């Protein structure tokens, strides 16, 4: 049962306290480090090529987020992926703004191509841009707004051997064997910067602790977000409540609230 | 009537959800992105020259903030201003620390000189440093502490064709045709980092949605700040309440609280 | 009496509002700037070599934190230390992650060697890594988990002429003449990113205002942290409450709560 998998994964993160290396954007570094700590993991925010081989040798996962992409950082990102590969550690790619510039689209694809063990976490637009023309739907599939993104995700699964998390009002976890839908979260979340980035960081923690699908992180984030929204008066208080919510989340709350299909 | 202009401008931001490109300092990236989201706009925090032409082609304004100025970033800032000019988009300059170093003063002037459509938002000291010797008062004008800054702002208006917002205990909006005073806000605000930077970011959102004077952003920030202060126990809770306050601000509150002259 | 020294130091910070230059990591720039403001100091977050001579000429202390160390920044850090020396200003070194990579260990030692007036603030692991083999205990000293770190701190005191603050569940302030233990703080603090970095920043403010031992900053941080924890439901609300707590801290609370030995 999926719920047991998720509850077990959260327990593993809290028990193992995995080290997660994050090469992420300036905007969310603080929030994502705090989210990782709150869920029980140990964030390392490191960006220097000179120390990346050492960092990846004792860490459990690598999260690469291109939110404030700088051409100077691209070779560092690729080198970090190589070191993750060499250490057989999973890579989580957050292709922020993929499609908004050629630099972002091409860098995302370079990273996806290079990573041996890959989870991609993006919103529908980013996932479609990453897949590009290869995954254009023929129209007939498009029964709802997420159909195109799911088709794109399936392409990414086959092209890169990746597992894909499409986050949004509904989250879709797409793997070679499975497709799961999560309907937690809250409408306030798009008004808070870095919610997707936070999910990507958490995905790194759960991957380091053994869940390579992205499912457990998305479930924890969605349920914690739902609880946080109930205690918030706006996006400022939501951010605080989300961190508290990740820290305080119980198995019972997960079981009671999880909307999975 | 100014109040109607302000209320209309806020409605436009919430309706249009304008994209605002921010090349800003590391300290405030998270806060300013969250303030832009809370007020209804869409922040893009991007810094790479390689993608700036694309970013400015579909965005509504460019905010340049030199708070953590790095010589590597200066050519990127100037290139972004050129792209804003080419797309006829307004540029908001926040000359953080202007006067504290030659690098900051000269960079601020280079940006001001280059921008075709410019709003400058700074505190009194920064505005005076930006104007420099050209705007020194003769002493007789100096009836209150803001007189010198207003003289400096008038110089900047004529020299750069800019509109100028001097923020502080009292805000002054200085344009070629008008001079407006706002007396909202709260004494806690100087104890929270990035309040000026947040106003500059909001000024970008309102400029993208049609208000090129800087008035509406300053009014919204001042009133939201006043409401936030009433709900706060210190600068930590103020930051949260300000974000919530920008999100929840109503036309009625604006009308009831606005202190304008 | 130590309490009087601490209370006096807090009063000096609030009265003098010292300027503190911070070359710090991306993750904590916002928090540390806010902590400095909340305690009454004036943060400058500046990183350009081109302006560092000017910045150090009118500032009271330099805080160097290697949390997101980049080889591009190392020469800037060393130049800033030279300018601090030239202006006879204290340097606070936060050797984040010292021992986790050769780059961090060597850079920390280069900075420590260069600074004329130095306070080092780290956790036990960082302090031991910075001291390295030179400070290995012989086993017999190791009566509790902090013994090794205190031996390492004593080595750093003699090697670099530094004062050393080891922060953790118990804080140890080690100087040439004294060794003080503080037992304030709360178990939630390791779940919030940048708590050590915040203490380092505060140490800069207190050093600029006259306390070169690191004691007053650690005492203020510990007591404010303890108060904040009582008002928190998790690490998100703790961060907010800490900022409020630094702002609102009274001499009476300090006197009532300080656990010093």
Automatic annotation (TrEMBL), chains A, B, C:
UniProt record, GO biological process: thiamine biosynthetic process; thiamine diphosphate biosynthetic process
Pathway(s) this gene product operates in, as recorded in its UniProt entry: Cofactor biosynthesis; thiamine diphosphate biosynthesis; 4-methyl-5-(2-phosphoethyl)-thiazole from 5-(2-hydroxyethyl)-4-methylthiazole: step 1/1
Positions of ATP binding: 121, 167
InterPro entries: Hyethyz_kinase, Ribokinase-like
Pfam families named among the record's database cross-references: HK
Enzymatic reactions: 5-(2-hydroxyethyl)-4-methylthiazole + ATP = 4-methyl-5-(2-phosphooxyethyl)-thiazole + ADP + H(+)
Ranges in a coiled coil: none
Claim: Nucleotide-binding is one of the keywords in the record: yes
Cofactor: Mg(2+)
GO molecular function: ATP binding; hydroxyethylthiazole kinase activity; magnesium ion binding
Function: Catalyzes the phosphorylation of the hydroxyl group of 4-methyl-5-beta-hydroxyethylthiazole (THZ).
Family annotation (HAMAP family): Thz_kinase (MF_00228)
Similarity-based family: Belongs to the Thz kinase family.
Name the UniProt record assigns to this protein: Hydroxyethylthiazole kinase
């Amino acid at each position: 049962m999926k719920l047991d998998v998720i509850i077990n994964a959260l327990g593993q993160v809290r028990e193992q306290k995995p080290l997660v290396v994050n090469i992420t954007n300036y905007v969310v570094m603080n929030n994502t480090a705090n989210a990782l700590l709150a869920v029980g993991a140990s964030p390392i925010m490191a960006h220097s090529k000179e120390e990346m081989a050492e960092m990846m040798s004792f860490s459990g996962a690598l999260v690469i987020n291109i939110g404030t992409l700088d051409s100077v950082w691209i070779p560092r990102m690729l080198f970090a992926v190589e070191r993750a590969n060499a250490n057989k550690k999973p890579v989580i790619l957050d292709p922020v703004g993929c499609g908004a510039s050629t630099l972002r689209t091409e860098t995302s694809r370079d990273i996806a191509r290079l990573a041996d063990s890959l989870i991609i976490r993006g919103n529908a637009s980013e996932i479609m841009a990453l897949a590009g023309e290869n995954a254009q739907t023929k129209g007939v599939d498009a029964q709802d707004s997420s159909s195109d993104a799911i088709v794109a995700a399936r392409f990414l699964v086959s092209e890169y051997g990746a597992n894909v998390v499409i986050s949004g009002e509904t989250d879709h976890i797409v793997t070679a064997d499975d497709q799961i839908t999560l309907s937690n979260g809250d409408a306030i979340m798009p008004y808070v910067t870095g919610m997707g980035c936070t999910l990507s960081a958490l995905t790194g923690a759960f991957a380091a602790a053994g869940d390579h699908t992205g499912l457990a992180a998305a479930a924890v984030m969605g349920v914690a977000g739902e609880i946080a929204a109930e205690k918030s008066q706006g996006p400022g208080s939501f951010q605080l409540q989300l961190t508290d919510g990740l820290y305080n989340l119980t198995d019972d709350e997960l079981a009671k609230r999880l909307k999975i299909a």
